[in-house]
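// run 5 | inverse folding | seed 20
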């Protein structure tokens, strides 16, 4: 079995999306440290994802109908005529880094990452904080109710009359006196 080192596939859109999540996530972490961040609506998330769907969808149709190197999205003649051929031919054709296709993939991946982080991170943050509050409350109740008092140390005073009566009743039962018998 032969193993090659240093070879990995490259996808402008995926590199942009994955690194974009990291970059926008760092920005989110900094901003949310100073103020709460509200999640964007599902509609706004859809608008940020729509360019990727359109770009990827047109590439899929182009590649299916015309092949990988002859489809309408490979040569982008429509864009060249729209811009009057003012940019070099290398910008319009192919998918090399710096070409129109490369820039669109980087841009749509970045928009997708921004939408995903801005939609999901505030929700995850909110639910994580709620879970931490719940766990802290439960831990506080467990630690205060299962307190062990060492001999010679004073016990804290009960917080209510109900608690005091319950403690008195338990003390009487421990000494053989049943408070429920109506003395």
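// decoded
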């Amino acid at each position: 079995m032969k193993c090659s080192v240093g070879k990995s596939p490259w996808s402008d859109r995926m590199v942009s999306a994955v690194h974009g999540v990291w970059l926008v996530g760092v920005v989110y972490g900094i901003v949310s440290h100073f103020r709460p961040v509200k999640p964007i609506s599902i509609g706004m998330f859809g608008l940020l994802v729509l360019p990727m769907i359109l770009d990827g969808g047109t590439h899929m149709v182009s590649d299916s109908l015309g092949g990988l190197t002859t489809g309408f999205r490979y040569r982008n003649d429509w864009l060249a005529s729209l811009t009057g051929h003012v940019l070099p031919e290398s910008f319009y054709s192919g998918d090399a880094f710096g070409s129109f296709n490369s820039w669109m993939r980087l841009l749509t991946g970045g928009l997708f990452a921004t939408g995903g982080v801005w939609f999901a991170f505030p929700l995850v943050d909110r639910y994580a904080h709620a879970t931490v509050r719940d766990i802290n409350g439960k831990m506080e109740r467990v630690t205060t109710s299962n307190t062990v008092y060492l001999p010679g140390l004073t016990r804290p005073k009960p917080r209510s009359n109900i608690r005091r009566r319950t403690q008195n009743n338990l003390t009487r039962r421990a000494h053989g006196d049943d408070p429920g018998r109506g003395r």
